[in-house]
Amino acid sequence: MLYNVDPREAARYLGYHGTKPDEKISALIDACIAEVEAAAVPRSIHERYPLVFCEDDAFQIASLHLRSRSLQRNLTGCGEVYLFAATLGIAVDTLIKRAALMDSAKGAVMQAAAAAVIEAYCDDENEKLRQEAAAEGLFLRPRFSPGYGDLSLDCQRDFLYLLKAQKNIGLTVTDSGLMVPIKSVTAIIGISKTNSNCHRQGCEECSKTDCKFRR
User: Nearest Cα to 102, choosing from 110, 90, 92, 112?
Assistant: First the structure.
């Protein structure tokens, strides 16, 4: 089960910015990516909903009421959205914990490798959605996840409830707001009748410029 996983993304999660890891770390990154891919049981779900712009920076998506200025910029011109969730499965969580118990350095690399793998998997799944939209003459915006910019993580529980994520892909959220399995992603993907040439995504859209994981 191979995806187009970029080892440089794993290195970024490890804190390498503008520098390359040495040969030993690079080899460990490659090995951890391979282990994560072998353990992963990736699953995803998506549903399509009308998007209603409300007052100020607020939106209504089915039963979800959200407020975010940065998400508003992302969704301007959209009339619908996909709600999207994906996970690598609980075996990857176990793999990360085991690696951390045996060797803290490998545990950190395994965390970074798993983050790179889930993003690559999401990219592959989102490309399928882009092709479906293109067949209807529609265009997709870059995915926008809770926690980016000023979109609060507090919406995760309602987000997953709306998608029936626990039943469909085994994805839940704890009382403290953490998703289980940990290596999971939720995102809103705007659907538009016009191509906005919008390529801003992830770190480029997020206002948290002091984040240590920023590109």
Answer: 110
- Which residues have a Cβ under 8 Å from the Cβ of 83 and sit 6 or more positions away? 46, 47, 49, 61, 62, 64, 159, 162, 163, 186, 187, 188
Residue 28 has pLDDT above 90, yes or no: yes
Block residue for tokens 């970029």:
6
Cα 2 to Cα 146: distance, rounded to the nearest angstrom: 27
Asked if the model's pLDDT at residue 182 lies above 50, the reply is: yes
> Taking CA 189 as the corner, what is the angle to CA 55 and CA 84, rounded to the nearest 5 degrees?
115
Domains of the chain with CATH codes = 7-204 (3.40.109.40)
In this prediction, residue 4 has a pLDDT band, given cuts at 50, 70 and 90, of confident
Q: What's the rounded Cα separation, in Å, for the pair 34 and 28?
A: 10
pLDDT of residue 19: 87
Q: What is the chain's mean pLDDT, rounded?
A: 90
According to DSSP H, which parts of the chain are helical? 7-13, 23-39, 69-75, 90-102, 104-135, 156-163, 165-169
Give the residue among 149, 210, 157, 147 at the shortest CA–CA distance from 179.
157
For residue 211, pLDDT over 60 is answered with no
CA distances from 4 to 1, 53, 84, 121, 171 (A): 10, 36, 20, 8, 24
